[in-house]
Fold this sequence. Notes:
Elements: E1 8-12, H1 17-28, E2 32-37, H2 41-44, E3 59-62, H3 68-75, E4 80-83, H4 90-93, H5 97-117, E5 124-130, E6 138-141, E7 146-148, H6 155-159, E8 175-177, H7 190-208, E9 213-218, E10 220-222, H8 235-244, E11 250-251, E12 258-259, E13 261-263, H9 264-276, E14 283-287, E15 293-294, H10 295-305, E16 314-315, H11 332-338, H12 346-360, H13 368-377
Parallel strand pairs: 1-2, 1-4, 2-3, 4-5, 5-9, 9-14, 10-13, 11-16
Antiparallel strand pairs: 6-7, 6-8, 12-15
Helix pairs in contact: 1-9, 3-5, 5-7, 8-10, 8-12
Amino acid sequence: MKAKDIEKVLVTGGAGFIGSHTTDLLMEHGYQVTILDNLEPQVHGQERKPPEYINKNAVLIYGNVLDRELLTKTIREVDAIIHLAAMVGVGQSMYQIERYVDANTRGTSNILDVLINTENNIKKLVVASSMSIYGEGKYHCKKCSSNVYPGLRNEAQLGKKQWDHFCPTCGYPLTSLPTDEEKPLLSTSIYAMTKRHQEEMCLLIGKAYSIPTVALRYFNIYGSRQALSNPYTGCAAIFTSRILNDKPPYIFEDGNQTRDFIHVKDVAQANLSALEHNNADYQTINIGTGKSLSIKNLAETLTKLYDKPNLQPSISNEYRKGDIRHCYADISKAQKLLDFKPNVTLEDGLTELAEWAKTHGWNVTDLFEKALKELKEKHLAT
């Protein structure tokens, strides 16, 4: 059911991975969509050409959320905003600090400043947050019968290849649990910090000025249209890029660390649901599957899908500073408030990614080794 009094939706970052799928779904449901996108070269290439998959019935505006004049004109013409525009990349954010804070934090502050200081008719704001703001996930100590929220593992522990967490009280190994929205936040990168800024600024201004606002904490998203040549994107795309270039997926630690992988079409559905459900206003909501998968398992599944059994994952037993061990979503709040249910199974989703990559990724350049070299030069990886 369409959102009341909302016909025109602005999708910032709408030419990107999540944004383009969200645009398609919005238009399928009868909304008029305007895309504002700067066609970031790291995602779209140095020529900044609009991708061929962009919905031809959407209005594409080439521009930046840092352009106040353009934002003011654009926002005046729409009824709601789904704010997805952001620089993404945990490792890169740790040595391109100004770039990430500028795009993510200041870009969002610009949108909010325009919302409250210019004439507009915005009735809803949905903002993309991230599971990265949690840091480590939620854990349980069976011996102490209590939940534990550990910080980052120290370098002394990582240097000994002791990857797992232990109870700070009794020393017993901890068990990972689904992470709910009440888990204390602990940003472990500049990227995570800027996502927290985006979330908290939007909710603060939304409440203060009665602009219904929802912050969606996305977990690890994968699927078609992901930038395969961007070495700072999700690991499913990074592994895919390696495999397409006949190189084995490179894995930090022992490969048994786990994440929650959700297909982009399910994320687009969550964006639509947040736009249309009023009972989620002013809430933070996890968007994941509620299931954990090891990084090693993901890599092995992808090599099978590409029929490259010889490309066994390279388990490095090295580490990156700021990496977490386990985090997967408790999605009960999304189920309750958004009637959300992930529909794409991991097998179907990875198959969809593989089929798309085979037809669109033939000219992909694998930049992972360059990115790893940069991390090592900055002493952010071993």
